[in-house]
Amino acid sequence: xxxxxxxxxxxxxxxxxxxxxxxxxxxxxxxxxxxxxxxxxxxxxxxxxxxxxxxxxxxxxxxxxxxxxxxxxxxxxxxxxxxxxxxxxxxxxxxxxxxxxxxxxxxxxxxxxxxxxxxxxxxxxxxxxxxxxxxxxxxxxxxxxxxxxxxxxxxxxxxxxxxxxxxxxxxxxxxxxxxxxxxxxxxxxxxxxxxxxxxxxxxxxxxxxxxxxxxxxxxxxxxxxxxxxxxxxxxxxxxxxxxxxxxxxxxxxxxxxxxxxxxxxxxxxxxxxxxxxxxxxxxxxxxxxxxxxxxxxxxxxxxxxxxxxxxxxxxxxxxxxxxxxxxxxxxxxxxxxxxxxxxxxxxxxxxxxxxxxxxxxxxxxxxxxxxxxxxxxxxxxx
Length: 382
Ligand code: SAH
Prior knowledge:
The protein has about 375 residues and is an alpha/beta fold.
């Protein structure tokens, strides 16, 4: 593990004064659609074709700095910096692991709210785990973010900027292995994405829209992970953008799930599974079930069987299970299941015909793995 002082493709100081209403991030290019950008250009007495020029810089070259947009008139670059390219966030701490191929960035937002994103480079793909909220209101007791409570929702631009900064750092060859593209996005950082629905959909649209107005990513390479906010899952199915849906289940029975995922008292296991199956019916996308394996809590063979039965009761081929060995979090007494218990759990699910793969989690030595994001500023004393 090493501490890198340099941020990823971001200026360290806030050279642009933060404007905007109290409590609301200043407006940024990534919050606007094409019409919105044209409107700004019209106010600045500029031709509308400049909108696509700016979009190309942002979404294809990953530049959020008008100073780099040298095909624009100098005066306009200054005006754009002032008007729609405020520095929205500052990388205050960058930690890396796995020989530099896993990088966790702590971002300070304009109001000092903090979030983290984690970039992971594998031999043949790259994945960025992004945050959708500062903190989280879902209060799952085994998750570090859940212990923080919710600070606030992020804006579209605050989420898109996490992606742009990572894409830029990959393109610039900052991650060992040479310059490359960003392939996958997972909404598995801080926050409950479906509790910030409008902003995460705005982000998804920016990611899937082809150039020049978006990053042209495939929806299937974007994963939205949820605790099971059933009405929002159903709404997501109807958006016509078939992102991959992951449901954090963690228990097949309501008694235990209500303890591990408190929102279960509002929408039960059966309701969450029905909504997941509905998502498959509408989109054709196989749903992922996330299941953190916690020693002597939820890792019993009978629970694997119950899960297998509940999934099969809703049909075949629509779902796969992703057990995640529990990552340690501060103050928690829970630990990961024993290897042989984990093997048995997986074997039981497979015996029910459920495709099951243990998630390879990265970054646990930099508190960057699933459930460990707490936006801590400095190393805690051991
Ligand atoms: N709020 C969303 C997005 C967070 S995703 C959700 O819960 O789905 C993070 C994933 O990591 C979720 O499946 C979450 O349940 C899981 N997780 C949380 N704490 C964990 C821990 N300590 N160890 C392993 N996985 C954990």
